[in-house]
Amino acid sequence: MKITIETPGQGEEDEIIIRCAALDEELMQLIYRLKMGREKLAVFSDKGITMMPLKEIYYFESVDNKVFAYCKTEVYEVHKKLYELEADYENLDFLRVSKSTIVHLPKISHLVPLFHGRFEAVLKNGEKIGISRQYVSMMKKKLGI
Question: What rounded mean pLDDT belongs to the chain?
Answer without folding.
Answer: 88
